[in-house]
Amino acid sequence: MKSEVLDVLKVMTATLSRLTDQEVEKLVNGEAKLVYSENKVAGVERGEKVNPTNPLIAQLKETTNRGDATRLLSRKGILKKDLIDLATVLNIHINKSSNKAKIIEKIVEATVGVTLRSNAIKETSIGRK
After folding, report:
1. What are residue 67's phi and psi, to 5 degrees?
2. Tens of pLDDT, residues 79-124
3. Looking at the record's lineage, which domain of life comes first (predicted)?
């Protein structure tokens, strides 16, 4: 039991170390709370902000076509909230009223779509006189 408590304290310490100063202040003042969650989806703890170094973001940036990116984001278990958090980290504006498919489409276009369009423009030769 004692070692389990120490393990929990280690997890709590790691979690608290990822909080910003403002988040810690709100926690101390009772304006925020920590939430326990057993489920981990796509490398993102539910209820926790998406980390910019999240492996899902790296996989998305390495994807070379829209279909693979859409399949990656459409995996079972990824919640709409997880997608909204991901879009926030990627600086993509999402309307709260958007459905999951529309959010996935916006994320794919803002990541993979931009890269594909940029490459197409670079590869196009323009005849100048």
Report:
1. -60, -45
2. 888 888 888 888 888 888 899 999 999 999 988 888 878 878 888 7
3. Bacteria
Q: Is 74 left (phi over 0), alpha (psi -120 to 50) or beta?
A: alpha
Specify whether the CB–CB gap between 79 and 41 falls below 8 A.
Answer: yes
DSSP string, 24-86: HHHHHTTS--------EETTEETTSPPPTT-HHHHHHHH--SHHHHHHHHT-TT--HHHHHHH
Q: Cβ atoms within 10 A of the Cβ of 66, count?
A: 15
pTM > 0.85: yes or no: no
| Sign of the alpha-carbon dihedral angle for 58, 47, 114, 53 | negative
